[in-house]
Description:
The complex is a heterodimer. By secondary structure, chain A is mainly alpha-helical.
Amino acid sequence: MHIPDGFIDIPTSATFAALSAVGVAASLKGAARSLDEKTAPLAGLTATFIFAVQMLNFPVAAGTSGHLLGGALAAILVGPYVATLSLTVVLLMQALLFADGGLSAAGLNIFNMSLLGVWFGYGAFLLAKKILPKNKVSITAAAAFAGLISVPAAALGFTLQYALGATATFSLTTVLTAMVGTHILIGIGEAIITGLSVSAVMASRPDLVYGYRGTKKSLEIREG
Amino acid sequence: MKNPLVAAGLALSLVLAGGASYYASSQPDGLEKVAGDVGFLDSAKASVVEDSPLAGYGVTGIENERISGGLAGVIGVASTAAISFGLFYALRRFKKDKS
Lengths: 224, 99
């Protein structure tokens, strides 16, 4: 999913870099409101863990692999603003140190994974949480659903960028179908890893899970 | 460390990036595969940091793939942790100063 330099022309890349900068600036503001003594270390861990797991490509179909994007996972664990910052740190480290994702494409990648992946994932999580019964298992199920949605959402972002500024001239429908089809498969892997990771944190420190806090409160009221 | 979850999570990250990454699939990822199938893979240009000593998740000069990739993973985890913990602690402090 990391776009290299050259796929998308410079004007389009610059436009998305500007959009991403606005999104990251808003996230800095939002994150400063939500981070405290207890959540700051979990936020650092989330970014670090996502970097590590992004190295673990899993096979999805003949000749194709995928890896965790982590936007949904981060949004559920630390909230969408801190998640956007976490993913942005990961993407910048990858582009600057490991030549994974182009530098001129950094704005494109941040838009797709740090903004679309995070917010579509978070939206899907809230929706699923609303429908499902209010318990811990539902948090894991909603997390998996969020992971599943977040990957094709990011793939749609690439398709939009391709439509606006591709340097090549292949049919947009071909790119759209191939991108969404492949990334739904990768989304299944994302769903599994997101569900497992969220359930592991829920088992040890549910009080730290951003996406669980509201749920917990209503449960406590009923118990009392 | 005060928070055992954070300590365990960081240790797991080191193990995954430093060890397990050796067993990761080396098939093209979703975007690369689509680009190849559709035909626009050729439009990719090498990154300007292509000559970085860590480019492609390996350490230049180390022949053994397991050590080279594992070390690159460990460096990546350490760097990401340094930047992200620094950023999030700074933001938390910023909030405290304002109130």
